[in-house]
């Protein structure tokens, strides 16, 4: 019999030496299904194993101290393996279970029920459900852009939509915390009158009853500026009534008002519904863009050195049932998706991605939203880009 010198120590620290090992004896061939390992006169080193196999027992010829030592080592190795596996599994679960942004319910201020802000918010809510697992976007109705800005600034909402002129004009608490995710789409200023109306320009509104939007709305801001350029003043030259898109179409059809202003994306459902059972037309406003910008520059610090209004066109397809259904020159102003500086950047980054990726789906209902593009979305004056939005645009930069 041969011996192997082993200098390992057992659990008591004693040194073990001269460990006997059985001589190597070549076993006779056996069927593969039931292998047998022989160790000569000392008996089998391992018992016979079937196909499934059994864990081999410790050789009975090894000293008790060595058996205890090897047993402890096997336990330690097994424990170490379990710990490593658990750590790796825990890391994998943590990575796969963490979407990289805060989850829960977040709020977005939209607008009146029949307006484009409300429709856009509903469509974006569906996109968030698909693109941001764990996030629920709660929509809050409002009277429009200025109200949305106040709600976001004071923390009632985390996101909101507002026009650039409303942003430049806003002077409420928390305005310094406002940030933008993207320039979305343009609002078009629409002055709606009956098809047989003699109104062909803003000046022709003198002496009439005009819906100028809800108090504190973006429509009211624009309508007041348009009327001031035409040197028309409420009470003296015409009667202003606080009708918004939710009730102005019905008031016009019922002859309670002679005209109404609206500023929104194309097409606006409230006007579409009106054209289906009433003959109406739009009054051209495109020639007022320069004068409107002058007013904004004079009244709003945030509008300085920034073009707020520009001339654009309402295409005939927007309201095919209007009479006439020709294209009409008008004013346009950009819409911004707004947030606060303290809203988590990771959430803002992901929200910006969803906005960009859902452009085509939302554009099927809000046609002007089809123009949303990463190359133009970054121009959010007069608001700075939110940090999370900036990260997104850098990541997708061509």
UniProtKB/TrEMBL annotation:
This is TAXI family TRAP transporter solute-binding subunit. It comes from Streptacidiphilus pinicola. Keywords: Membrane, Transmembrane, Transmembrane helix. The lineage of its organism: Bacteria, Bacillati, Actinomycetota, Actinomycetes, Kitasatosporales. PANTHER family: SLL1037 PROTEIN. NCBIfam families: TRAP_TAXI. InterPro entries: TRAP_TAXI. The chain crosses the membrane at residues 75-93.
